[in-house]
Amino acid sequence: MTKAMEECDAVVIGAGFSGIYMLYKLTQQGLRCRLFEAGDGPGGAWYWNRYPGARCDSESYFYCFSFSQEVLDEWTWSERFPAQPEIEAYLNFVSDRLDLRKHMTFGARVTGATWDEDALRWTVETNTSDAVRARYVVTAIGGLTSTASNLPNIPGIEDFKGDWYHTGHWPKDGVDFAGNRVGILGTGSTGIQAIPEIAKTAAHLTVFQRTPAYIMPAKNHPLSAEYNADIKARYPAIWAKAKAHFGGQPYDPPAYVFDDLDIEEATRLQEQYWNEGGLRVAQVFKDAYTNPQAREFIEDFFRKKVRSIVKDPVKAEILEPKGYPFGAKRIALDSQFYETFNLPHVDVVNVKKTPITTITAEGIRVGETDYPLDVIVFATGYDAVTGPFRAMNIVGRGGMKLADRLDDGPRAYLGMSFHGFPNLLAISGPCNPALSTNVPVSIEHDVEWISDAIEYCEKQGIKTIEPTAEAEDAWTDETQSKLEGSLLEQADSWHIGANVPGKPRRLLLWLGGMIAFRKRCDEVTDAGYSGFILTR
Questions:
Q1: CA-closest candidate to residue 379, choices 220, 148, 185
Q2: Which of 118, 339, 354, 489 has its CA 20 to 30 A from that of 36?
Q3: Rounded to 5 degrees, what are φ and ψ at 356?
């Protein structure tokens, strides 16, 4: 039976922050749009990441949209760092407040998009729906998504008799750990959030850690009515500050040079920031990432904190961050993470020193030691940034597959477009700064840039917009140039694809910061979309 072919102007893939705002902008321009979302409601990453303890590590008052005054006025956050259910509820609220659901199709995972050179249209197919044909396709799939979960290739997983879960595919009705011996692999941001929660009910929890993280306390707390009223009154200034900040955050830049301070004063300031909580640990010293003495001081500060909290010196030694410089991997936030290891039923195993040998029917074997388990949790992250694109069968001009183009690492012009794929635009794509910044601020920039580009094409009678090979190559090369000699080069992290065996060791993110990125994108548009082929 032949599929019905719906015709529309634009297809948006994904209903997280990116997709919701993109859909709003394009429908406001009068375009006929269809949004596809694999989940059964809005949320994106915050729909899928339901693992225990899932929480944002940006403060709620700026981890949200700035474009709608009505949304800012009507939504009130309950906590300093919102948990997954509240963020999912927020994105549902925004979708309803802006009347966007009528354009959304849920439970529909995009399985392919193919460019028709004669018709100048994309044909988009999902696992459930009829095909849709559109002039534009905008990917709003994020860089850390469930479609590209990273399950480590450990032999024997098929033999395990218990239950196992990946944090990116958590059951909607949760998991009952009561009375179970639980093992969790991974102490990145996800594991750090999940471990204290799982420990509350598990009979025994064994943490298998390869690389300890630099961790700041969240110091999370409920928000008072007075606090929220003050924030809402100051939002114009808050957003202006965030959009003029290197990382898209409404914070003042670091005020001190490390060498200008004596150790007592440096320690006092570092202690002050620790007690305030949040991710502002690198906001103390201007030269935190460039001065080896400053980094050594900060690293020692963190290790002393671990030893002061974790009572067992053997556990503390395993949990102390070391083996790579401060700033080379993502800094995480915790809520009682270190304190959890003071519980008698929580252990940590150093699998960097002695790697996991196999998963057995009864649990996990490390070297020659067996750890009996009833449940295994993989908090092992994602095939970041390029993985979500490689999971979709996107076919451009001449049968070119985007997955093949990304085999050797990330490539895109401005992190938003691909040579050989006309009218395919990406929010927070490869070689984009998004995941190194406050993500909603970066998303809003990309959405607005893309919607302006589409509006320009529509008004100018331009049928296709596509970057030149030269522009894409130059942007890709510039992205990679930031890796050589940088701190990121000194650690195995998802930022350079090191968490996925066989993935090219390439920098996935453009690290020039939001201010420079905005300027570069503005220069492109001011020059009549330089670097793009515009076909009338």
A1: 185
A2: 118
A3: -65, 130
Show Cβ contacts of residue 250 under 8 Å, excluding neighbours closer than 6 positions.
62, 238, 239, 241, 242
Instruction: Give dist(CA 374, CA 206) in Å, integer.
Output: 11
Q: Which residues, in sequence order, are bridge partners of residue 208?
A: 185, 349
Rg of the chain, C-alpha, whole Å: 23
pTM listed for this prediction: 0.96
In the chain, the domains with their CATH numbers are 5-147+383-535 (3.50.50.60), 151-214+327-381 (3.50.50.60)
Q: 246 exposed, middle or buried (CB, 10 Å; 0-12, 13-18, 19+)?
A: middle
The rounded distance, in Å, linking the Cα atoms of 480 and 98 is: 39
Element (H, E) at 458: helix 439-460
What digits encode the pLDDT tens for the residues 467-523? 999 999 999 999 999 888 888 889 999 899 989 889 999 999 999 999 999 999 999
- Token pair belonging to 320: 């102390």
Structure tokens at 422: 């006309």
Do 397 and 447 contact (CB within 8 A), yes or no? Answer: no
What whole-number distance in Å separates Cα of residue 268 and Cα of residue 185?
35
Ranges of H-type helices in 75-129: 84-97
DSSP state of 416: T
